């Protein structure tokens, strides 16, 4: 087992914990409202767990190349090795640009929350603890992208072929 497998297992474990935690907190919220004794921290905790779930899910999606992509131009071009290489460069560069900007924004937000000592209203925890995992997820997503495009030939081929197959199906269905 390589280090990669342990890292992705940790990501999967955190994702499982956030989804399970969200389910438990929502059940507490619903039951407390039914019995007429609303628990004030449940709405806030659900929101934070949902935020973490989305971001760790994004990492999983990048790892498996299970994310949406716009590929109509790629489909319309003649199929060749050169076109595939250009496609992968554009694919990788656009995702790297996106995560670079997102990381920059998340670092700024987390630092502002840390400096201002912002506290969540219901839970009373420092807000930088809520947003710090977002920064970590951005870095993990870039690592997953690099692995899927440069180190994992199976996923790299899947990126190229999935784009072709999905687009062909859309054109045949008249969606494009």
How do you describe this structure in short?
The protein starts with a helix and ends with a helix. It is built from 6 helices and no strands.
Oligomer, anyone? single chain
Share in helix:
over 70%
Which ranges are low-confidence, i.e. pLDDT below 50, for 5 or more consecutive residues?
A: none
Shape: elongated
Spatial gap, N to C terminus? 43 Å
Please provide the ordered H/E string of secondary-structure elements. HHHHHH
Q: What is the count of β-strands? A: 0
Please, what is the average pLDDT?
85
Count of discrete structural domains = 1
Count of helices? 6
In words, what does this structure look like?
It is a single chain. The protein is mainly alpha-helical. It has one domain (3-172). The protein is built from 6 helices and no strands. The chain has helices spanning 3-34, 41-64, 72-76, 81-116, 128-151, 153-172. The longest helix is centred in the middle third of the chain and has 36 residues, at 81-116.
